[in-house]
Amino acid sequence: MDNACRGCRCLDETWVPEHRCSDTMVSRRLRFFLLVLLPHLLVDGAAARQCFWPGPPAPDDAGCLSWRVMVEANNARGWRTVPAPCVAYVRGYMTRGQYGRDLAGVMEQASAYVEQIGAPAADGLDAWVLDVDDTCLSNLLYYEAKQFGAYDPLAFKEWATKEACPGIHPVRELFTALLDKGFKVFLLSGRDEEALGSCTAENLEAVGFSGYERLIMRTPEYRGQSSSVFKSAMRKQLVEEEGYRIRGNVGDQWSDLQGDCPGDRVFKIPNPMYFVP
């Protein structure tokens, strides 16, 4: 074969001289890459970004999820009202199911702990302490109507005297289980005893909290003191003066759970509606 006949045949049956064969092969491979492989690479890359690269925050979040986590972790302290951009977020959290799921999770942990520690001692001194407001009784309707604004003692007194606070069902189930097992249950509230003692007791009774050992409320000597100081003193009295062993402590505020004699284990119920020092 003479040099003029040497070459290669293309896919379209055209004949290409030998010196252009390698260029033709490269060109065909490049077209194959562009037409067949490149689209798959682009799609896979987009999917990878979707799976592993954080997207923009939800438009209705405005950092409120981060704020709520700081509240529950006790890193955000001393705040008087829910930040204005987060009012709708807190309302949604409390009313659209997430609060209920979080609360149920806390109560599951508490119930598992009750089973773990077994029956109380025969001396009758194994006890639990439960907070009242937004632990046993819900004030969601009150705070929602106020747009989760600052605490107003006169307005709250008017609300509490109506005895209209709904019971918090998962906590009532824990309360009943504790009584059935023989634990003494003390309800410890920062409410003023003289002003709200009878209406609080009646509200608790109406929603199924009955049979507790004692309802402990704020007496005149503790007016003006923080909830943390008052509740710490009451627990210390139960332990050091009356001989009780606090096996568990449940509350929606960190001030319910810190200080002297907090208990063998504490359980924090979520509450982004207000802060009590």
Query: What order do the helices and strands follow?
Result: EEHHHHEHHHEHEHEE
Tell the overall outline: globular
Mean pLDDT: 86
Q: Determine the number of helices (DSSP H or I, runs of at least 4 residues).
A: 9
Helix proportion range:
40-55%
Model regions low in confidence, pLDDT < 50 over at least 5 residues = 41-58
**CA-CA gap between termini:** 100 Å
Radius of gyration: 33 Å
Look at the helices and sheets and give the structural class: alpha/beta
Task: Tell me the number of strands.
Answer: 7
**Major sheet: size, sense and barrel closure?**
5 strands, parallel
Q: Which strand-content bin applies to the residues? A: 5-15%
- Sequence of strands across the biggest β-sheet: 5-4-3-6-7
Layout of helices and strands:
Blueprint (H helix, E strand, L loop, with lengths): L6 E3 L5 E3 L3 H32 L11 H9 L14 H9 L2 H20 L8 E6 L8 H6 L7 H9 L7 H13 L2 E9 H14 L7 E5 L8 H15 L3 E7 L14 E3 L9
Parallel strand pairs: 3-4, 3-6, 4-5, 6-7
Antiparallel strand pairs: 1-2
Helix pairs in contact: 4-7
Q: Can you tell me about this structure?
A:
Strand 4 (184-192), helix 8 and strand 5 form a beta-alpha-beta unit. Helix 4 runs parallel beside helix 7. This protein is 46% helix and 13% strand. The chain is α/β, with parallel strands linked by helices. It is globular. The strands form two sheets. A five-stranded parallel beta sheet has the order 5-4-3-6-7, with helices on both faces. Mean pLDDT is 86; it is low at 41-58. The longest helix is centred in the first third of the chain and has 32 residues, at 21-52. It starts with 6 loop residues before the first strand and ends in a 9-residue tail after the last strand. The protein has helices at 21-52, 64-72, 87-95, 98-117, 140-145, 153-161, 169-181, 193-206, 227-241, and strands at 7-9, 15-17, 126-131, 184-192, 214-218, 245-251, 266-268.
